[in-house]
Amino acid sequence: MPDSSAEEIVAVARGGLKLIVQIPCYNEAETLPQVLAGIPRSIPGIGQLDIQVIDDGSSDGTADVARAHGVAHVVVNSGNKGLARSFQAGIDNALRNGADIVVNTDGDNQYCGASIPDLVAPILRGEADIVVGDRKPGLNREFSPLKRFLQRFGSSVVRRLSGVEVADAVSGFRAYSREAALTINVMTTFSYTTETLIHAGQHGLKVVSVPVEVNPVARPSRLFRSMGAFLRKQIVTILRSYMMYRPLNAFLAVGLVMMVIGAIPILRFLVYFAMGDGTGRVQSLVLGGVFLLAGYLTVVIAFLSDTIATNRRLIERVLTRVRELELASRTRDRPEE
Question: How far is the C-alpha of 113 from the C-alpha of 97, rounded, in Å?
């Protein structure tokens, strides 16, 4: 990503940046007031701090609670569209409202609002594009040993696939610079956490982790019904994102392995054939040929997919530029206060 412009540096010095703290919610009328109360109203380096609630088709009056507590921006989905789409809708609306930094937190009061200044500090210093709050889940005694192990293992897998150093890959407590927010295109319908990290690694965004405080768990997550369901959805999301952003790595390795497997029985047949004992060993030739053909086709798919991925990156750059122009046009057309 390019360095901050001179105007942005001056804005930081004057405390002129605008921060929007967004809270995706689904039936969080009970906990939302606690979340709102915990958000600081002033942060050094931030000139304006607004709160935004995305009501994902709640039936308990979450949007009314948000308005009653003076929330500046309330986005209401027509139905329950899921966390990922609510997150994307919130990012888009925050950008339209002039956010220089967007912080995402949850409506279940899991994350401590007092840690928001720690999240935005690396962005204000120009040291990061995305900041992920590290809950240190591997040390959280409220989690079972299995869950702590899975959290550590899952984060290590995401680090390897995305190429970014992050300690808590599924943490939803994050801060995004305006430039990073402009590039976000969430495709999954389950959760944006792992996909946006792989996306960040693909686009060369600087991602850092900072320790954050968490509140005691008040209720089970509404995002998934069980640990098994969570694991299945996360695995599908990771594989889908990896094949979308790095298809050459994903398919080329599989194709080469299949070709090696196919070469072994063919070589076996050729050795016996050279020794005059090839009769009755045609099965090895057939099996090897099948694997070689499948491997060759997979390698072809790898290069075709890489071409598609290259086109996708070009389209994303165009989309980012279109967003910038659209937002700049809205800013010019907006009447002065």
Answer: 22
